Amino acid sequence: MSSQSLTTVVIGGGWAGIAAAVEATADGTVIVVEERPYLGGRARSFQDKTMHHQIDNGQHVMMGCYHETLRMLETLGTAHLLRRQRALRVAFVQPNTTMDVLDASALPGSAGIAVAIMRLGNLRLSSRIAVLSLAAKIRLGIVTGRGLTCSEFFAKHAQPNDAIERFWEPIVLATVNAPITNAPAELLFAVMKLAFLGSRTDAQMLIPTCGLSDLLAPFPEWLRQRGGSVYLSTSADAIVPQNINGTMSAVVQLSSGETLVANRVISAIPQRALRRLLSNSSSDVVLPAEPPASPIVSVYLWYNSGWMPVDFASAIGTTIQWVFDKQNLHPGLVAVTVSAGASIVARDAGSIIALCDEELRRCFPQELGSVELLHGQVIKEKQATPLFTPANIAVRVLPDHVAVAHPYLRIAGDWTQTQLPATIEGAVQSGVSAARAAREQVNTGHQRSQ
């Protein structure tokens, strides 16, 4: 904790901004400014107007390795709303093929993953050995993917086509949200080491028993009790430097006409929004070129009864990629995701719903035999994540990217340099890192002034 009480303005109320605010509260008063009328950013909940059920604006996967996310939710008192798998268990389905299940419960940690891989019946034995061999090399750090796409990396290490299609590609799409021809292999490395090749608890899937917004719901009151506040439906239009008693501070100009004076500011908004804010603030800071966006299409389907035999499944050889059973929220509800969904995002909602229903019936012919589809909802997140490549991942910005020109300003967001894909955990880690970087800068400045 710093030796002086600080006022921190956090711009952006998504997961990165909330994480930054929770961390910064240890140093003083925190004010969060969010231009939308809700918190949570691209990972939130809303009510379907037809079924009047709460759904998320996309299915977000969490795992036990989400240490900073879990720490934040423990602080807010909502971590108990995540149900842990006993051990990693992932089903793989494909039309006209028996369901395969990767079940890591036989042994602890990476040994359980190894046994699970060797038991995958729909992979040839030689392919299972190839997958296991490469996973072991990743875990031991004796291979590198730097500068390579995932497809280049798989080719370099002689991964068979069925191993790529049935094992590696689903992991890449779910975590990096990019085709294997674009996705940086080093992000796959990070995912494998953090989640699948760590401890048993790290590899456990965390299944929300509520909407994503419910996980963050206590935050405004939590912050208010600590002297802070949240401004919704309010944007930060400019940041004006101000020298107060020899210390560089900032005046944040809001769309409401109000101004906030802060010792430090944390920007937790998308790169394009930060670029506009800096431009409005007469800043000559140069940000790297923004990567193109990779869309995610999420489809919620309400059936007249529950039918899924597993919590979730990876679909192989279909447009749909992942299917999640949501009947713990609403009977008969499933969520379907298509990551890196550029090929489908322009289609109309009706055709997307029909496609998803048809492919589900081919993957689960017995379970869906007499089950009727009641309603569908399509959610298109066209700006879901940056489309990272080996080239642009090298220039992801650090929390102190603008510190020379703006010593009071730090940057957070899943697009910044977190060493992780653009995930909830990446966003939360970035917020924590930005708040800690701001704390270190203030402490250093305070020590020098003495």
Folded structure, characterized:
The chain is an alpha/beta fold and 450 residues long. The chain is built from 13 helices and 20 strands. The strands form 5 sheets. It has a 7-stranded mixed beta sheet with strand order 8-7-16-17-18-15-19, with helices on both faces. Strands 10-2-1-14-20 form a 5-stranded parallel beta sheet. A 3-stranded antiparallel beta sheet has the order 5-9-6. A hairpin with a 7-residue loop joins strand 17 and strand 18 (333-338). Helix 1 runs parallel beside helix 13 (424-449), helix 2 (67-76) crosses helix 13 and helix 4 (125-140) crosses helix 6. The longest helix is centred in the C-terminal third of the chain and has 26 residues, at 424-449. The protein starts with 5 loop residues before the first strand and ends with a helix. 47% of the residues are buried. Residues 446-450 have low confidence and may be disordered.
Set down the secondary structure blueprint.
Blueprint: E1 6-11, H1 15-24, E2 28-33, E3 45-47, E4 54-56, E5 62-63, H2 67-76, E6 82-84, E7 89-94, E8 97-103, H3 109-118, H4 125-140, H5 150-156, H6 161-176, H7 185-196, H8 200-203, E9 205-208, H9 212-216, H10 219-224, E10 229-231, E11 236-244, E12 247-254, E13 259-262, E14 264-267, H11 271-280, E15 293-303, E16 312-315, E17 322-325, E18 333-338, H12 349-363, E19 373-386, E20 409-411, H13 424-449
Parallel strand pairs: 1-2, 1-14, 2-10, 7-16, 14-20
Antiparallel strand pairs: 3-4, 5-9, 6-9, 7-8, 11-12, 12-13, 15-18, 15-19, 16-17, 17-18
Helix pairs in contact: 1-13, 2-13, 4-6
